[in-house]
Amino acid sequence: MVRCDAMALADYPLADVIWTIVVFFGWVIWISVLLMVLYDNFRRPDHSGVAKAAWTVFVIFVPVVGVLVYIATRPHMMAVVQGTDPELTAKQ
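Below the sequence we write its predicted structure tokens.
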């Protein structure tokens, strides 16, 4: 017996659809945070080339821990580079 495409879609439960959406948007969020950290790393004027390379290697090879450590240790400069620092916007 040959199954049509409509029957194949019926075999994919709603919970699986929701889980697929959650995983997809999780990856989108993860990639955007990773790119934001790498962008911030290379725009920092207070880092040397060796420090930038070390952070990049750390963030790429130990992704979750590397990004969390970078954000935890340098949160203020990330806001300054992006222009969302409340102290700078209050002074302007």
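Residues 14-43 form the longest helix (30 residues).
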